Amino acid sequence: MSRPPVSSTPGVTGPRAAEAKSLDRRDRAWWFDFGARAAVFVGGMSAILFIAAIFVFIGTQGLDFAIHRLSWSEFLFGTHWEPTVEPPRYGALPLIAGTAWITVVAMLVSAPLAFGAAVYVAEFARGKQREWLKIFIELLAAIPSVVWGVIGLHVMKPIIQHVFDVQIGLNVLNAGVILGLMAAPIITTIAEDALKAVPDTYREAAEAMGATRWQVIYRVVLPHARPGLSAAVLLGIGRAFGETIAVLMASGHRLMIPHSVFDSAATITATIAAELGEAAKGSDHYQVLFVLGLLLFLITFVINLTADWIVRGGRRRA
Amino acid sequence: MTIPRLPILALGLSLLTACGNSNTTEIQNLGSDTMLEVAGAWAEAYHHAHGEVVVSVSGGGSGTGIAALISGDVDIANCSRDMKEKEVADAKAHGHNPVRHHVGYDGIALYVHKDNPIASLTLQQLADMFGAGGKISKWSELGVDLGDPNADPIALVSRQNNSGTYEYFREAVLGGESGRFKPECNNLNGSKDVVDFCAKTKSAIGYSGLAYASDKVRIVPIVGKSGQPVTPSIDTVLDGTYPIARPLMMYTIGEPLGAVKHYLDWIKSDDGQRVLMSKHYPPLRKL
Question: Residue A182: is its pLDDT beyond 90?
Fold first, then answer.
């Protein structure tokens, strides 16, 4: 903690006591060190502070309604979401089901793609090619979600209509594919880190015993990296769960439990985005949207904690 | 596609920049998506004639405009429906007295794919198609053959529930305040999105403002009080024969004063109403 600043050490040759005393001087370097430490402490703690503040904000905005007037059985199992009709109905099951459907499709799309990319980048690509690939994967992650939404609306929609001969091209499949492509770079990056973390000695040992490249990857690297790969998928799920605008544009926003991937659907996030601007502050509609936000927050919280727990478990075993 | 919160942010920013310049007056105008295009045209034409006044216009939906008016963020809220009792009560609770200004009309047209041959629809048939519990769910039940069994189930295209068009259609067609849409509806976020959807989906039918008509869709004549099918147009809305038409409103807090009053008076004048007509909305009176 109290390592001396580099600038004050050279040339100190006296007895130890004098050296210690000279090091304890609260000169400019000491204050600078103190200030820097305080600054990074605030930065580090701010994450916790923000999470707590957001949780409190979302919680208090919807609390009154959630406790006194919301029927939780209707909220969790009701199938009609009609917040602006008198009497209003707040059945969020279609939104929960829509979110789940789209997330599952997104993972079916992104997990194989991302694992393939991660294995190639980590195990096969070399030198410049590897560097370029990583740059492009990161670029893919940086594409704004509204651009993905436009792709869903204008590119995916006609493709789905023609290929599958369905009438409505804005549906679970469309939103799922778009979300899958959005989540893939994140999964790839984390999965690649997990593969890279497998010690080379393991690979060398397997190769020395005559295993082919694929056998090394399939039998040694992948099993060893499994906790990291699971965490990668879970974080991808978290990403897909929370994505908003692309889903709002590509899903068709139908407030009904989807029965197939060709049905339109609505998600929790898209509903909040579409309706919050209108709802008068403090009204029941406004508050129920915050309850939806709280539900979303809790789900992503659990997903992220699980991912973290899996990674830690994996490290302990290793 | 509108992102409800962004316009408000943009407004806030433009308000900040406006403070630096004392020569121009800025009027903040927010609300109905239906009225967005004409509100923009009014703002532009007015600024052309009165260079010292700048009108900032944003959409987001009628409810968004009213909410912003109540919280004091805007001078004028565009609203394609009457304020709800709840909203009036909310405004009163904030110590505001909202004043309604009637600025024009809008016909709600029923759009279908251009290959859809349906001759006309009655209000009852529309209620059976769009309303919860309604019996009509296939085109064949209306005697329409679209030539493709996949296209027989009707794809209903509606709006998100903060849209004034959604509210108006619900009240005018689905049986008043308690009318409910079928959950099968696709809820789109913009007037133009509805028309685009119908243009590209053979089995679709959707409702949207008359001003959003295009060559790529067909407008279904609706049977009015006379028992005859009526195609929506400026004339049929003005003479009252087209049954699904509504007034367009602008709301202010209290009677408007100064620049805002002058702007609203100009909108209601012949000059302002000609701008409205150029955007295919029926004016307040025959010009």
Answer: yes
Residue B212 DSSP label: G
- At residue B287, the pLDDT reads 77
Cα separation, B243 vs B236, in Å, equals 9
pLDDT in tens, B176-192: 777 899 999 999 888 88
Residues of chain B contacting A252 with CB distance shorter than 8 Å: 186
pLDDT 10s digits, B197-221: 999 999 999 999 888 889 999 999 9
Query: To the nearest whole number, what is the mean pLDDT of chain B?
Result: 86
User: Which residues of B fall within a CB distance of 8 Å from A170?
Assistant: 186, 197
**Is B201 within 8 Å of chain A by CB?**
yes
A130 contacts A120 by C-beta, under 8 angstroms: no
Of B3, B160, B186, nearest to A168 by CB-CB distance is B186
In this structure, what token pair is assigned to residue A98?
């829509």
- Which tens digit of pLDDT belongs to each residue from A218-272? 999 999 998 899 989 998 998 888 888 899 889 989 999 999 999 999 999 999 9
pLDDT of residue B192: 87
- Give the per-residue pLDDT at A304: 86
Q: Are A245 and A145 in contact (CB under 8 A)?
A: yes
Q: Which chain A residue's Cα is nearest to B198?
A: A168
Residue of A nearest to B113 (CA): A167
Which of B131-156 are b and which e, b meaning 16 or more Cβ less than 10 Å from the residue's Cβ? bbebebeebeeeebebeeeebbebbb
* pLDDT surpasses 70 at A165: yes
The residues with which B217 forms a beta bridge, in sequence order, are B113
C-alpha distances in Å from residue A107, one per residue of A188, A199, B287: 12, 28, 59
Contact B63 A266 (CB under 8 A): no
- CA-to-CA distance for B180 and A11, rounded, in angstroms? 85
Residue A84 lies in a domain: no
| pLDDT attached to residue A42 | 93
- Number of domains observed in the structure of chain A: 1
| CATH code of the domain containing A238 | 1.10.3720.10
**How close is the nearest chain B Cα to the Cα of A296, in Å?**
20
The pLDDT score that the predictor gives to residue A316 is 58
- Report CA-CA distances (Å) from B73 to B5, B29, B60: 12, 9, 14
| Domain annotation covers residue A149 | yes
Q: Do B189 and A82 touch (CB under 8 A)?
A: no
Q: Which chain A residues are within 8 Å of B184, Cβ to Cβ?
A: 254, 256
At residue B105, what are phi and psi to the nearest 5 degrees? -130, 165
Determine, yes or no, domain membership for A9. no
Reported pTM: 0.77
Q: Are residues A254 and B184, on separate chains, in Cβ contact within 8 Å? A: yes
Establish if A217 belongs to a structural domain: yes
Residue A211: which domain range? 95-265
Which residues in chain A touch residue B204, judged by CB atoms under 8 angstroms apart?
167
